[in-house]
Each structure stands twice: as C-alpha cells, then as structure tokens.
Amino acid sequence: MEFNNHTDPIEESMLDARDCSQRRQCYVFPELKFMILAVLYVMMFSPTEAYDPLDPTGNITIKWDVMSWTPDGYVAAVTMNNFQMYRGIMNPGWTLGWSWAKKEVIWTMVSVGLAGTSNKTVKLPKNFTLLGPGPGYTCGPAKIVPSTVFLTSDKRRKTQALMTWNVTCTYSQFLASKNPSCCVSFSSFYNQTITPCPSCACGCQNKKNCIKSDSKLLRRAGINTPKKDNTPLLQCTHHMCPIRVHWHVKLNYKDYWRVKVAVTNFNYRLNYSQWTLVAQHPNLNNVTQVFSFDYKPLVAYESINDTGMFFGMKFYNDLLMEAGPLGNVQSEVLLRKDKDTFTFKQGWAFPRKVYFNGDECMLPPPDTYPFLPNSAYANPIATPTVAAFLLLLLSIW
C-alpha cells in the first residue's frame, strides 16, 4: 500500500600459502580478516548511520489512530509529524508505503476493510517506507503506544482513540545519495586567497550533461522545467554541486566581527522554497544581528549552543531561484566576540559543519583555509610600543 501527498492511494580472501610460515598462521589471518570485514559491515549498515549529531532525536513519526470499529475493519486517522529541527520535505512531496499484515483493503479514505475488528484481532501494518521525496528514510516497525487523546471541535470535551500505534522514520544522508549535494567555499578580509569548493565535491557524474553559464541553450523554452525523475541540469563548475555556500569573514571590530553568507543555486531545473541553512560555529552562541535572513538557535544539547539555522524571510528571500542571475541569497551576520576564545588563527573563524536543506555540505580541507599573514601573528602591543619608542627618540634628537 502506498500513500503520497500529490496522487491518490493505490494497492499495491584468501592467503597465499607462501606467506604462512606455519599452518597456525594460515588460519589466524583469515579469521582476523573475517572479523575486520564483519566490523566494517556493521559500521556501514548499522541503523546508527541515521544518527545526526546536530539533531540527535530528529525523526518523522507516523501515528495511526483507530477511531472506531466496523463490521469488517476499522476507521483510522493517520497523521505524520516531522520532528526534525531543520529538515523538511521538498516538492513534489512525500510518499508513504506499507504492507498489510492480512488482506486488508482501503474502501474509502476514512475506513479499512477486511481488517481486525478489535484490539485483539487487528494486525499492525508492516514494512513501512517513506520517500521525502527521494530515498534516505528508514522506518522501524509499528509499535503500539498509549491511545491518543483528542479535543472535540468546541474544545470542551476529550475523546480517545480506541488504539494507537506509531512508526518512526529516521533520515540517513548516506542512504539518500553516495555524494554530497552541496559544498562550502571560504574567503576573508585578511587574505586575498579564496578557498574554493573541493573539485568534484558532489561527484562529477553529471559533468557530461552540464551547461555553461553563457550557453545559448539557456534561451531555449522549457529549459527550466523540472523532469519527472528530478534529474538536475547543473551549471558547469569544478565542484559540480547544485548548491554552494560561501562564508566570508568580512570585518573585524573591537568587540564584534562580521560574516557574509551567500547561497548560490547551480541547478537550472530546481528552485528551493523554504530553504534552510545550518551552521555550527562556537561563536553562534552570541549572535547579535542577522541582517537579511531569519535565524533560530538549535540547541540539541542543553550545555552547548554552537549551532544555528538560517532561513529566508517570508515573501522576501524564502525562495531560492534556479541557477542564473537570481539564483542566490545572501546575508550578513554580526557576532559579539568572546575574548577568551576569539581568534582569526588556524581557521577558527570558519564553520565546523554546514548543512543545506538537511544535508551536510562538503567543506574544503583545513590546510587550504585562508590564513593570517605572518605579521598578523605579532603581539598587538608591539606596534604601539615601537611607535612610542620612536617618538621618544625623535624628541630627544
């Protein structure tokens, strides 16, 4: 059985003997190799792959409330709640599927026939799948939970479901795609070098089908029309990512510092409505002002406040247009310095993690970050001291 939010529901090693000096060694190493492979297999396919350190409890919960029993089944209310802090469902929407435990059918969108007719005889659906809109979600088994309590329409009385079960689905970027979907570049006022996104950061499988920014093909009618399979039409770049996030350390004040953040879309067939951008940086615990984006701190752990979510202002820049002159959004962020931790040394001013629409972006290698000139490492007291000493010499002279 499958539901979606845009269509109607439907049915549905061996070791060389020459390397072994003794027979015993020939048996030990294959066993060790098997153990290593087993550990790697568990690491790659363990459910913990869906764990997100920036949103450790994030999930989508499907709740199935049995509201009444019928002669051949029950009437159920099915709801879906997104408990993820920064990952939404993009167009064209979600698709929910499952397998019936018996031979149930949906007579109408408000009842289920040929199902159990009591708490004891009903069988829970199984094998739930969720696309949002593509792969990435893994759903656990249905579990019976305390019955949901509802308020009546006049909000004066309470009613209760006869039976309730939940299905929890978690997201894994590894399952969604083998390559990232975004990358990050850096620059700063104290270094003319721009650190670009890594080459082929999002894979170069679309390199043969990309289109140059000055191509005449862009004038063709329908070039921006999305395909049914969501195949992207990317602008030719060295990173081949649909999205690039640029973090520029712009200004330095006595008690504050300023960053400019820009998001650029390189996909000619897709715009992003209600986009989100998440960054992790220790100084996000003291954001003074965000100028052109809305901002919300994300405190996944009570003692740590180093992560925040940027998103567009409604009716202003909450829609990131397709690749082209309008395919970018940007804002500046003013942060107050913590004198105990603030520094421009060793790339401290750049984010530790960046996510766009819930997927982690590839950062450049740390050794390529814009670095301070050697003179910037000097003691700030040294220059005034030298100047005072020269003035003293001039007065004596």
TrEMBL record:
It is a lipid-anchor; GPI-anchor. Pfam families: COB_C, COBRA. Keywords: Glycoprotein, GPI-anchor, Lipoprotein, Membrane, Signal. It comes from the Eukaryota. It is found in: Cell membrane. InterPro entries: COB_C, COBRA_pln. This is COBRA-like protein.
